[in-house]
Design a protein that fits this description.
Blueprint: E1 4-10, H1 18-29, E2 33-39, H2 45-54, E3 59-62, H3 67-73, E4 76-77, H4 79-84, E5 89-92, E6 98-101, H5 104-115, E7 124-128, H6 132-142, E8 148-152, H7 156-165, E9 174-178, E10 187-192, E11 210-218, H8 227-234, E12 239-241, H9 244-259, H10 266-273
Helix pairs in contact: 1-9, 5-6, 5-9
The structure holds 2'-monophosphoadenosine-5'-diphosphate.
2'-monophosphoadenosine-5'-diphosphate binds near residues 132, 133, 158, 194 and 199.
Length: about 280
């Protein structure tokens, strides 16, 4: 029997770690899965998706810059994808409907709580950034019941828009939006969701947000310490994690959605860290 076919679609895609992660999941679980990387033309994402499923493909991961297009293309969305406004996981449901899911937020929360032992319930959390990546993780963070969630962004109106969008999910969490310069007290958890480091920049936030027990999380991953994490460590943070665990955890959640089996993630994270 031939393997079931999965892929990640993006542009560019050659550096994606997803094929490696999913092939490690497949060998670990014994699932008959083949997983490739597809570079879609920037203006032809939809045709790439259609061709993949016409060829019998079972599921797609979607990455930059197509996550919003994947969300729009799908005829059905899971609740977590609906709120995220973007999709990283596509598949046909049993009743034949192209369905969009989003496993990014679950990936972040799982990495923070299970892999790093960080308690989000009751925590005061600062998120830096208000773009697509941040929008995708807010609902799963709120579901853990933090005491406060402050979203700081260069463009304050985008942070304010996210606070309004997620007001219904806030429960007892106190939500606030502001610019980078405003927060001036230590937070329990600080998550960098900006793409500033791609331009060699740092979000210009005060070092006063870092206390001796503050946990730092950069949603980007890097073989070296990320620029943001280095800054935080230089300013007194004791723990700073990058997004490699989130990457593996979101992949594991996609694998579970597609195959009904949750792979073990720590051996895969260790293996990638040693690559
Ligand atoms: P992504 O999908 O990675 O979230 P995005 O939607 O373009 O990409 O969002 C990028 C985020 O990084 C935004 O919060 C952006 O701030 P603005 O909303 O003000 O544009 C932030 N960002 C990008 N470059 C930055 C920089 N040099 N300094 C600070 N913030 C930056």
């Amino acid at each position: 029997m031939s393997n079931d076919l999965y892929a990640v679609v993006g542009n560019p895609i050659s550096h994606s770690k997803s094929p490696r992660i999913h092939s490690l999941f497949a060998s670990q679980t014994g699932e008959a899965v083949e997983y490739t990387a597809i570079q879609a033309p920037i203006d032809d994402f939809e045709r790439t998706v259609r061709q993949f499923f016409e060829r019998g493909g079972k599921g797609l991961n979607v990455t930059v810059p197509f996550k919003e297009q994947a969300w729009k293309l799908a005829a059905r969305r899971t609740a977590r994808a609906e709120k995220a406004g973007a999709s990283n996981t596509l598949y046909f449901s049993e009743d034949g409907v192209l369905t969009a899911d989003n496993t990014d937020g679950q990936g972040l929360v799982q990495d923070l709580t299970s892999n790093h032992g960080v308690t989000l319930n009751g925590a005061r959390i600062l998120i830096l950034g208000a773009g697509g990546a941040v929008r995708g993780v807010i609902a799963p963070i709120l579901a853990r019941g933090p005491a406060a969630l402050t979203i700081a962004n260069r463009t304050v109106s985008k942070a304010e828009a996210l606070v309004s969008l997620f007001a219904d999910d806030a429960g007892n969490t106190e939500m606030a939006a502001c610019g980078f310069e405003q927060p001036d007290q230590p937070f329990d958890v600080i998550i960098n969701g900006t793409s500033a480091s791609l331009q060699g920049d740092l979000p210009p936030v005060s070092a006063n947000v870092i206390g001796e027990n503050t946990v730092i999380y950069d949603m980007m991953y890097s073989l070296q310490t990320t620029t943001f994490n280095q800054w935080a460590l230089d300013h007194g943070a004791s723990r700073a994690y990058d997004g490699l665990g989130m990457l593996v955890e979101q992949a594991a959640e996609s694998f579970r959605v597609w195959r009904g089996i949750a792979p073990e993630t720590s051996p895969v994270i260790d293996e990638l860290r040693n690559d």
